[in-house]
Amino acid sequence: MRRYGKNPDEDDVRVRPNRKGNRPRTNIRPKHEDAAEGFVLTVDRGRLHVLVEDRTIVAMKARELGRKGAVVGDRVAVVGDLSGAKDTLARIVRVEGRSSVLRRTADDDDPYERVVVANADQLAIVTALADPEPRPRLIDRCLVAAYDAGLEPLLVLTKSDLASADKLLESYGTLGVRHVVTSREELADGGAAERVREQLTGRVTAFVGHSGVGKTTLVNALVERQRATGHVNAVTGRGRHTTTSALALPLPDGSGWVIDTPGVRSFGLNHIDPSRVIHAFPDLEPGTEGCPRACSHDEQDCALDQWVSDGHADPQRLYSLRRLLATRERREGD
Ligand SMILES: Nc1nc2c(ncn2[C@@H]2O[C@H](COP(=O)(O)OP(=O)(O)OP(=O)(O)O)[C@@H](O)[C@H]2O)c(=O)[nH]1
Ligand SMILES: [Zn+2]
Asked: Locations of Basic residues compositional bias (predicted)?
């Protein structure tokens, strides 16, 4: 399974808590050599809930971190009281390099870009096939955010007992996005959780979806076993309903992480860089070499039209890319 260790490019060494205290003491020890490694599970009113070995501890950011914050999914170094006992508070002294960052602006009028989840490698976009009606533009915007962040998208289409998935899947066919379709019946017999879990093994998957699509129902089914043993309740017991943070939940048998994010009404895309989105289209990317500087890829001189008419890529792919890039402009109802 994927390791969540630090970025191999970082030169700081892996450190372990020196509990026995039998290491020689010198004055030239690197700073915070005794720090333990932790994994941020959730953030609640400035307090970070961090998994250290098999304990959940509550920590705050050390002042020396400055403005740099830790978010759910971050690998961090923690010092202080690591017992996890009630009312103890540890300190986060370092945030390790991130392999990915999922950002959003709360909406397009929001000038602040927020990192929502660190180190995820997959984005599960949960959409109901009916009740509420699917919002293709919102799906497209989530796809753009995934491509921008370098996360592999996964479409999870719920409530197939209410409406067929055919039409929606048709419009995502050329994008080659993986998908899972679930129904009420399969939720009840465990089939839904099983098929979604197959797509999550060994990965850190952030789940997004707007209110009412059945995301909570699905996430509960996925992590059922942990909830039943109370392991996760220790983390979620506090402030789950007041927090606006994401929440990391382990899949059974350590087979990956589900990161549940609060319901999205919109997915602001102010921060998106088209060149990072195009990176997810390796068949089109080389064709942009002939583009004018800062090409929007939807203009007269865009070299992609020629690239496609020369037969280097499927015109449907260019159409899909342009459709996605166009969702960056906000419209009523986004
Ligand atoms: N018919 C049908 N209903 C479903 C299905 N999955 C979930 N629901 C229902 O849809 C409603 C919303 O489900 P939730 O899991 O609360 O949805 P959510 O996306 O978490 O929404 P918020 O809690 O508002 O963020 C509930 O009444 C569920 O019972 C499904 O596959 N089919
Ligand atoms: Zn172009």
From this structure: 16-29
Q: 180-213, pLDDT tens digit by residue? A: 999 999 999 999 999 999 999 999 999 999 889 9
Is 295 annotated as a binding-site member?
A: yes
Q: What DSSP letter does each residue of 39-101 carry, written as one string?
A: EEEEEETTEEEEEETTEEEEEEE-GGGTT----BT-EEEEEE--S--TT--EEEEEEPPPS-E
- What is residue 23's DSSP assignment? S
For residue 287, the CA-to-ligand 2 centroid distance in Å is 8
Whole-prediction pTM: 0.84
The CB of 18 under 6 Å from ligand 1? The reply is: no
Task: Kindly list the domain boundaries of the chain, sorted by start residue.
Answer: 36-95, 101-260, 274-326
Give, using CA atoms, the residue closest to atom 9 of ligand 1: 214
The rounded Cα 236 to chain-centroid distance in angstroms is 19
Query: In CATH, what class is 101-260?
Result: alpha beta
The second-level CATH assignment, the architecture, of 36-95 is Beta Barrel (2.40)
